[in-house]
Design goal:
- Strand 3 and strand 4 form a beta hairpin.
- Helix content is about 40%, strand content about 20%.
- Strands 1-2 form a two-stranded parallel sheet.
- It starts with 10 loop residues before the first strand and ends with a helix.
Length: about 80
């Protein structure tokens, strides 16, 4: 086992709607890889990824909760 001692402890944060387990896994991997590509001097083992997920009823867009907003978008797309 290799122990990495770094002076930096970068934290990557996703804050948004709920994800399934597969999406969480891919998002953690993808965010870490992207950060390593941009800041190659920090090893991937030093990165922390926090996922702050909210149900759609707790997310507001344009004065509506997310399910209502998405329903309006679908309705507009169907109309034209």
């Amino acid at each position: 086992m290799t122990l990495f001692i770094v002076k930096k402890m970068p934290v990557l944060i996703y804050e948004g709607s709920e994800l399934n387990q597969s999406q969480r896994k891919e998002l953690i991997k993808g965010l870490t890889e992207a950060a390593c590509n941009v800041i190659p001097d920090i090893p991937k083992e030093a990165y922390y990824v926090l996922l702050r997920e909210y149900p759609g009823e707790k997310i507001g867009v344009g004065g509506l909760n997310l399910p209502e907003h998405l329903a309006n978008l679908r309705k507009k797309q169907a109309e034209g």
